[in-house]
Each structure stands twice: as C-alpha cells, then as structure tokens.
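Hi there,

I know you've been waiting on this one. I reran it after we fixed the sequence typo, so this is the corrected version. Both the input and the resulting structure follow.
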Amino acid sequence: MVHADRCCAGRYVAPEFVQRLRAYDEVEAGGTVTFVAQYRATPTPTVKWFKDEEEVRATERHQLDDDQSNGIIRLTIRDVLEADEGAYKCKVENREGVASTTGYLSVAGTQACLHHLIRTELN
C-alpha cells in the first residue's frame, strides 16, 4: 500500500482506509483484543484512537502501533475489563484531510466473572 512521502513525489493524498475496523468485536473479560486497520495517505498522517470519543493513550494495557511502511495500525487491549466495552474510532489526519473508521467492542463473561468472584469470597 502506498502512503509514504517518497512514493508519490510531489503528490499529496488525503487519508483513506483501505481496510476498515471490523464493525463488531467480542472478547471475554480478562482476554486480549486487537483492532486492525490500514490507511493510505501522503504526507504521513497522525493517527489517534478514541473510545467513546475520549482519546486512548498507550498504557500497560493499551498498545498503539503504526507501521508507517505499510499503513497498518493496531490498538491492542490486554486484560480487557467491562469498562472497555464501547465504540472505538481510529482517526487518521494529514494536511490534505481526515478519515475515520469505527468498531464496537462487546465484553462477554463479565457477569459470570463477577458471580465467580462473589462465590469465591463467600466461601
């Protein structure tokens, strides 16, 4: 996929997604989920991730990857919590424009985990 400054000598391209986020992902509480997309843009854009319109920053649980050689971007969330459920958006922007893609994360098993913890503490 072409997106680096050197590839389109003198030509600028507004960001576009050649692979969008999956519309829906489901993961078990405590598991790991990775959102993947791929963009094309010149010049190289800034990439930002959002959960329910709040920016996601890199933490011990949140890993943000942007492979500028091929435009593949990833957001990996480890040890998923019920609070991680929601709409995730990736926004790619350069001086020519902006593009975004959104997917929804559902966290399964949160009630089962809660009941297990309660039972464990009662015994």
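Quick highlight: Helices lie at 110-122.

Best,
R. S.
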